[in-house]
Write a structure and sequence with these properties.
It is built from 14 helices and ten strands. By secondary structure, the chain is of the alpha/beta class. It folds into two domains: 187 residues, D-Maltodextrin-Binding Protein, domain 2, CATH 3.40.190.10; 98 residues, Periplasmic binding protein-like II (D-Maltodextrin-Binding Protein, domain 2). A five-stranded mixed β-sheet has the order 2-1-3-10-4, with helices on both faces. Strands 7-6-8-5-9 form a five-stranded mixed β-sheet, covered by helices on one side. Helix 6 links the parallel strand 6 and strand 7. Helix 2 packs across helix 11, helix 8 crosses helix 12 and helix 10 packs across helix 11.
Length: 331
């Protein structure tokens, strides 16, 4: 009987060892199955990117079989890295993709991060710029793109004002709050970040939103993008990435405070108060009136392309149907 129990004990120990090894092997196999992909941001981390950080932190990417690395752009921007295949996905803009595709660059928007354009021209209240007509005689600080003058002109024309009376200077990457205290009267900002920061600073701004003056300027900014080759050669990875990102942004919509904490943990140099307040401001704007987060409409792509064409900003033919897709959004 004693020998029988000894034999039984040995069997149990061997079985346990096998199970332990099997479990270890399963974990290793699972780890090996994760596909490494990169997503490059358009700028330093901010609340436009929260859904990506949530998807990574909460394991949504991992559930889809992806090992996602979120990287910041260096001298080479997100669009160039994605178009060349050096990054799998990136944070881009409808305006950038429109111009890129006209030049034969195969970028494709696969999800709208924010459903409506939340950008506009901001100025300290003391500058007394309340409508586009008030741009006359003022100095605008921008980044040197011809699109800026065209947008300012478009808004000013709604009030019969003259863009030639605006002094437009290239301020580069200058801080908004620094430049409007010196040589600049107004600048183009995303209210969800810089506008919210002004609130926290106690600095009152006048805000002129593009969408208040032109339906054609209600374009998708920002968006998630990839390139045509990725879509053709590896659609399953694109589908997996978009599904996880969608879960991440839905989490940010439903739980903005917790989502803010995740972004703060991932980017500890950010001001926690700004992240929290910005996240609350953006929570209902990610999806807004769309049927689901990420959805894009052909009409929006057509409207903006027509506006660009009207202002001589397109140097070729643009096919809006090839510039975006909703095919990878979760059903």
């Amino acid at each position: 009987m004693k020998k029988f129990y000894m034999f039984l004990l040995v069997c149990i120990l061997v079985l346990a060892g096998c199970q332990s090894n099997n479990s270890k092997d399963a974990k290793e196999t699972s780890k090996k199955k994760l596909k490494k992909v990169t997503v490059v941001l358009d700028w330093t981390p901010n609340t436009n990117h929260t859904g990506l950080y949530v998807a990574k932190d909460q394991g949504y990417f991992k559930e889809q079989g992806l090992d996602v690395e979120i990287i910041q752009p260096g001298d080479t921007g997100a669009d160039q890295l994605v178009a060349s295949g050096k990054a799998d996905f990136g944070v881009s803009y409808q305006e950038g993709i429109t111009q890129a595709r006209v030049q034969g660059v195969p970028l494709v928007s696969i999800a709208a991060v924010i459903q409506h354009n939340t950008s506009g021209f901001a100025s300290p209240v003391a500058k007394n710029i309340q409508t586009p007509k008030d741009f006359e005689g003022k100095t605008y600080g921008g980044w040197g793109s011809p699109v800026e003058k065209a947008v300012i002109d478009s808004l000013m024309k709604t009030e019969n004002a003259d863009v030639k009376k605006v002094d437009i200077i290239n301020a580069g990457d200058a801080d908004f709050f620094t430049m409007v205290k010196k040589d600049v009267d107004f600048a183009w900002i995303y209210y969800g970040w810089t506008g919210v920061e002004a609130e926290l600073r106690g600095e009152k701004l006048n805000m002129i939103y593009l969408t208040d003056y032109s339906k054609k300027l209600d374009y998708y900014t920002p968006v998630l993008a990839t390139n045509e080759k990725m879509i053709q050669n590896d659609p399953e990875t694109v589908k997996a990435f978009v599904k996880a990102a969608s879960q991440g942004y839905q989490y940010a919509i439903d739980q903005p405070d917790k989502a803010a904490d995740i972004l703060i943990k991932a980017a500890p140099d950010l001001d926690p108060k700004l992240v929290k307040k910005s996240q609350q401001w953006l929570a209902d704007k990610y999806q807004d009136d769309a049927k689901q987060w990420g959805e894009q409409k052909l009409e929006v792509w057509e409207n903006y392309a027509n506006w660009m064409d009207d202002h001589g900003l397109l140097e070729g033919k643009f096919d809006p149907k090839k510039a975006f897709t909703n095919d990878f959004l979760p059903q």
